[in-house]
Write a structure and sequence with these properties.
The complex is a heterodimer of chains A (766) and B (161). With 766 residues, chain A is α+β, with helices and mostly antiparallel strands. Chain A contains 21 helices and 30 strands. The chains are: A alpha+beta (766), B alpha+beta (161). The structure holds FE2/S2 (inorganic) cluster (2 copies).
């Protein structure tokens, strides 16, 4: 049986179903609690912080403000630098961001940390936190990007000269003459609301002090343990030998946990300052206030097409509201810009984008990170053009989607890694056909009969997703004394089933049964380097790293067998876990492991181990089409998604069940951002969506059954895999908006979340 | 803060404890008894991750105080045993009804109540299952696998692929 491509039951499931998962808060026994005092104003200078009453409160070990921390740098180090080729091709600029780990002079958003209370339990720590008295001198607040760019706007970060955090622009072809020749030009402003990952498990950090070793062990609910280690070391001045970051079971991440946070620096620091093991477990209100959010973009898009609906030029100018800051601003702005080109023949384009500081919460790369926004803008523009030309939404896409004749399709632009873009797909138009095969337009009549009270419409949305972003991921395989293979990668799991998928890759690569392999949770002390899980990269980067390292482990085994037996290494064969050379006894991994033991042939040899980094040349592209049928209630404007289908051109699937799960879950999150979820802010910068009552996640009755068709198109990496973690999310807003427009016949949805009152007033006016 | 003595059964074990009046049932189970399978996703009664059975009815342990369950019998995810629990767990795994698994204990408890203690006619329909699960949030799976798993576990003879 080949393991790759098989829906092997997940190894994670048994413990999780038994209630024996080991999430961050589950490991907190014996630790004292940290509770943070957070700013309740969006912008202001700190005047005084009175901690005297809190210091005296029961159970309190200490109350700490920024001045007492002794941080080397009171801000989080940059996570990534844009590639020079990309910078040159897109005139990319980015300012230095210095958001305080703990505010020392000024606060920039509600929820920013101004003090920390350490107490013997959470209840007492919260009591004491309420006694901390913070005095502010309020400053003018900027919530919306248009206001941040106003010439009169206050500059929010003192070391900068404007509120612009990043910018890029590029063009190719001749958009001006294309526009002049166009049969139809559609111009519109689109807004994508601020919503985010909101994993069901909030964040949390636990630190235990190794009193004998002087080391600090940190567990954090993260997707990127090595980045967290770097953030801790950069801010504190500690070396990587002093701090070891471990990943517990993580209750969902989706990008908000692919970030480095002040709490991840402060909890270990406070542990050292107080000499105690400490835990901070975020509560939901903190999460909805202070954890990184996403989206929040405005686009001005102009699409020019000829009389047949063929795209002549795309022009787009967009802004991303990154709030008080984003360590990922380069990624978000670049992703948005590149993905605006979509899976179509686009002969000319002019794109400009900027990241803008405001006084909202910080932003990270929420599932898709610019791709859903770009898809919404381009797909909505295509729908608008189709309407003007009297074409169907399907037909205009048929005329523009790249086909087998066009692919691979180069673009006159480097990707973010500096490598010229070439879409490596199979036939994108065939993917549209597959989606329509799953959910034909004719289904509308059936659904209309089933729901006579609703207006019914069909919509499609296409996307193209760069996946498997490099530059590398690392893997390490170690043979235990019992001959079992232990695997560790830098790509921490947050529910994606890595313990199973990577075991499949390792077992298949080593020709061993699954039972012979175990995937260990990532920790930075055991694995020196790593990047992490985000941007649909783990299967591609870490999966290939495991396969590559497995081959190296076999070579190492072969050499050891040869040393022990005196055989010529070139003559050592390896089959199904057994090494053998002519005229010698065979040996399995367990026998090889034993050879290093006392009195054995290779006494003193260290355990067999291989480690390597898999580097990819550039990204691989996953394309897909979403189709949906939506019912709109004419009395309320409320939309209900009745049917949903996704066809996608993925690569080899390591575990089809896991891949399908990624798509299903992605659709649900896409529906949330399209219809229900929004981080709302008042004019004073105060967050208005700080409970699950106000920030509405979709439930079992809101998410329909989703049909999926996987069109496998292998790609140019050893496993032939493409990323799929974001495929489910990207085109949801586009497809649902189109279906609502088709249902009502009188709307052109230009903003998400799609407000029922907007739909209703359009219906009332029609 | 006054302390109270409570006596209760947790997963069939008799327990007596002294607790402050403000201690939540969830914190009591997790921190005092080490039953960390009961998860906290919101601590304000919306997400259902903390669902436990109190005298066989589902209750949100995050907005229930330990003192309120004095004299009651509590079942947490760790205490779900027997043929139905086995079928539910197997079906959740087979149908990929969990990814990160953080919501899962709450869903298992709610599903147990739905199948064992709900008076609605059986076999359940997908719509009924969805409606009954609407008080539990899952951020990972899109619910499809969860709904299928509950249907499978309720009517084991009707399992299709
Ligand atoms: S934690 Fe109790 S309902 Fe969310
Ligand atoms: S499996 Fe992650 S929240 Fe449900």
């Amino acid at each position: 049986m080949t393991l790759i491509g098989t829906s092997v039951p997940r190894r994670e499931d048994e413990r999780l179903l038994a209630g024996k998962g080991s999430f961050l808060a589950d490991q907190a026994q014996g630790a004292y609690h940290v509770v943070f005092v957070r700013s309740d104003i969006a912008h202001g200078d700190l005047r005084q912080i009175d901690v005297s009453a809190a210091q005296e409160a029961p159970g309190v070990v200490g109350v700490f403000t920024a001045g007492q921390l002794g941080l080397r740098d009171n801000y989080i180090a940059l996570l990534h630098e844009p590639d020079p080729e990309f910078v040159a091709a897109t005139a990319f600029t980015m300012v230095d961001q210095r958001l305080a780990v703990m505010a020392d002079r000024r606060v920039h958003y509600v929820g920013q940390i101004v003090a920390a209370v350490v107490a013997s339990d959470r209840y007492l720590a919260e009591d004491a936190a309420e006694l901390v008295n913070v005095g502010y001198a309020a400053l003018p607040v900027v919530v919306e990007m248009e206001d941040a760019l106003d010439a009169e706007a206050p500059v929010l970060h003192e070391h900068l000269s404007s509120n612009e955090a990043a910018s890029l622009s590029f063009s190719f072809g001749d958009p001006d003459s294309a526009r002049a020749q166009a049969a139809v030009t559609v111009a519109e402003t689109y807004r994508i609301g601020r919503h985010g990952a909101v994993p069901l498990e909030c964040r949390g950090v636990l630190t235990r002090l190794g009193h004998r070793t002087g080391e600090v062990d940190v567990w954090t609910s993260t997707q990127v343990p090595h980045m967290v280690r770097r953030g801790i070391c950069a801010a504190t001045g500690w070396t990587t030998d002093e701090v070891r970051v471990h990943v517990p079971d993580v209750g969902g991440g989706f990008g908000t946990k692919a970030n480095v946070y002040p709490e991840e620096i402060l909890v270990p620091l406070l542990a050292r300052l107080t000499g105690r093991d400490l835990v901070w477990v975020e509560d939901r209100q903190e999460h909805l206030t202070a954890a990184a959010q996403g989206r929040d973009q405005v686009h001005h898009c102009v699409l020019s097409v000829d009389a047949e609906g063929r795209i002549l030029a795309l022009e787009d100018d967009f802004l991303v509201n990154i709030g008080a800051g984003s360590l990922w601003v380069a990624g978000i702005v670049a992703n948005t810009a590149i993905h605006l080109l979509g899976p179509y023949r686009v002969p000319a384009a002019r794109v400009g984008g900027r990241g803008i500081f405001t006084n909202k919460a910080v932003v990270a790369q929420y599932r898709g990170a610019g791709r859903p926004e770009a898809s919404f803008v381009l797909e909505r523009s295509l729908d608008a053009a189709a309407r003007r030309l009297g074409l169907t939404n399907v037909e205009i896409r048929r005329r523009n989607l790249l086909t087998a004749q066009d692919l691979p399709y180069p673009r006159p632009l480097p990707y973010r890694d500096g490598v010229p873009i070439v879409y490596d797909g199979g036939d994108y138009r065939a993917c549209l056909d597959a989606a329509l095969d799953l959910l034909p337009v004719g289904v509308v009549a059936q659904e209309q009969a089933a729901h006579p009270e609703l207006l019914i419409g069909h919509g499609v949305g296409c996307y193209l997703e760069a996946t498997g972003r490099g530059p590398y991921e690392s893997a390490q395989l170690t043979v235990t004394p019992q001959g079992r293979i232990e695997v560790m990668t830098g790509a921490a799991s947050a529910g994606q089933g890595h313990e199973t998928s990577f075991a499949q890759v390792a077992a298949e690569s080593l020709a061993l049964p699954m039972e012979a392999v175990r995937v260990l949770p990532t920790d930075t002390g055991s694995l020196a380097h790593g990047i992490g899980t985000f941007a649909s990269r783990s299967a591609v980067l870490a999966g290939n790293a495991v396969a590559q390292t497995a081959a190296q482990l076999v070579d190492a085994g072969r050499r050891r067998y040869a040393r022990a037996t005196g055989a010529d290494p070139a003559e050592v064969g390896y089959r199904e876990g057994v090494f053998q050379a002519p005229d010698r006894d065979p040996a399995g991994w367990r026998e090889l492991a034993r050879l290093g033991g006392p009195g054995e042939a290779l006494e003193g040899e260290p355990p067999l181990r291989a480690a390597s980094m898999y580097r990819c040349r550039t990204v691989t592209w996953t394309m897909g089409v979403h189709a949906t049928v939506v019912g709109v209630h004419p009395g309320t404007g409320i939309a209900r998604v009745l049917r949903y289908a996704v066809a996608h051109e993925g690569g080899v699937e390591i575990n089809p069940l896991v891949v399908e799960g990624q798509v299903l879950g992605g659709v649900a999150q896409g529906l949330g951002g399209t219809l229900y979820e929004e981080f709302r802010y008042g004019a004073d910068g105060g967050p208005r969506s700080t409970t699950f009552a106000e920030y509405g996640l979709p439930g079992a009755s809101e998410v329909p059954e989703v049909q999926i068709r996987h069109l496998g198109v292998p790609t140019d990496n050893p496993l032939g895999v493409r990323g799929a973690g974001e495929s489910g999310t990207i085109a949801v807003a586009a497809a649902v908006a189109a279906a609502i427009d088709a249902a009502t016949g009188c709307t052109h949805v230009t903003a998400t979340p799609i407000a029922p009152r907007m739909v209703k007033s359009a219906l009332d006016a029609a | 803060m006054t302390d109270h003595v409570i006596r209760l059964a947790v997963n069939d074990e008799q327990i007596e404890a002294t607790v402050p009046a403000r201690l939540t049932l969830a914190d009591f189970l997790r921190d005092r008894l080490g039953l960390t399978g009961t998860h906290l996703g919101c601590e304000h009664g919306v997400c259902g991750a903390c669902t436990v059975l109190v005298d066989e009815r589902s209750v949100r342990a995050c907005i229930t105080l330990a003192v309120q369950v004095d004299g009651c019998s509590i079942t947490t995810v760790e205490g779900l045993t027997g043929p139905l629990a086995d079928r539910l767990r197997a079906a959740f795994s087979r149908r990929h009804g969990l990814q990160c698994g953080f919501c899962t204990p709450g869903f298992l408890v709610t599903a147990t109540e739905m199948i064992e203690n709900d008076s609605r006619p059986k076999p359940l329909t997908a719509d009924h299952v969805r409606e009954t699960l609407s008080g539990n949030t899952c951020r990972c799976t899109g619910y499809q696998g969860i709904v299928q798993a509950v249907l499978d576990a309720e009517a084991p003879d009707h399992i299709t692929g």
